[in-house]
């Protein structure tokens, strides 16, 4: 592990983070507006903890994860990692801290260079940071064993593996530098259901073995509920509810969270019990370039009141469970 911060402090702390993308039009490419992909988000992740980030496609989950790693440029806010604000570091300082932060991308095939064999892919970071001790082959075989793949396959190419095996290779690459934090950007959404469970179990085993911290991004609450200690629900660039995973699953407070949980498929016996409570969201998510006034969810909320259209809700907290909703 690379981080030397005191163990009681959060490994990652995000304060009022904004990531906006300019909308340019005309011959002069004049900025006429912004897409508010991430809009005033605050969260934290402790050591050895998994924070699940859930929400519909287009709500800003992946943009938030990419901003934390510097793959997207933040407009304002703070990203404190190991006590250092990443947005204030120079290129040399940021390069050094990149060893402690890695990412697993959603599509296991496009995330791998088809012209590189596996030994080059999973040891590339070690070579770049001059951390090779012994031979590249020894490191590659060790990493392949850690993710449950045949160590003799290190000279094969990505197209020779199945989707689940390719995602294990992506995990091996992320693990190679022994990071403190890994952003998992929907790492199982492109895999078969049976393979999803295997990859989730692998991630949990590696987390416990190396005391890793994960930001686990997904739209699948069933998957998140199995791996995450805490959960944050995101809608239109904002966090609308957060808390321990068990609390949110058993006692969701925000109408949007209730709708997401209600949409998870259930066995027929359970479906009959909950049929009368079915929650169906109306319409589609508004454009993040022109978010609604007041509570951004009021245009689709079954419980919207007049105040929801006029005023943005403040945080209401009960223990470790927080929600932004006028109902409370």
What this model shows, in words?
With 328 residues, the protein is an alpha/beta fold. It has a single domain, classed as Rossmann fold, CATH 3.40.50. Helix content is 30%, strand content 24%. The chain contains twelve helices and twelve strands. The strands form two sheets. It has an eight-stranded mixed β-sheet, sandwiched between helices. Helix 6 (163-175) runs parallel beside helix 7. It is globular, with a radius of gyration of 21 Å. The chain starts with 11 loop residues before the first strand and ends with a strand.
Provide keyphrases for this structure.
Rossmann fold; globular; four-stranded antiparallel β-sheet; eight-stranded mixed β-sheet; 328 residues; 24% strand; alpha/beta
Blueprint of the fold:
Elements: E1 12-25, E2 30-45, E3 50-54, H1 61-68, E4 76-81, E5 84-85, H2 91-97, E6 101-104, H3 118-122, H4 124-128, H5 136-146, H6 163-175, E7 181-185, H7 193-210, E8 213-218, H8 221-227, E9 230-235, E10 238-244, H9 245-250, H10 255-262, H11 268-274, H12 306-310, E11 315-318, E12 321-324
Parallel strand pairs: 3-8, 3-9, 6-7, 7-8
Antiparallel strand pairs: 1-2, 1-4, 4-5, 9-10, 10-12, 11-12
Helix pairs in contact: 6-7
Summary?
With 328 residues, the protein is an alpha/beta fold. It has helices at 61-68, 91-97, 118-122, 124-128, 136-146, 163-175, 193-210, 221-227, 245-250, 255-262, 268-274, 306-310, and strands at residues 12-25, 30-45, 50-54, 76-81, 84-85, 101-104, 181-185, 213-218, 230-235, 238-244, 315-318, 321-324. The chain has one domain (12-324): 3-Layer(aba) Sandwich (Rossmann fold).
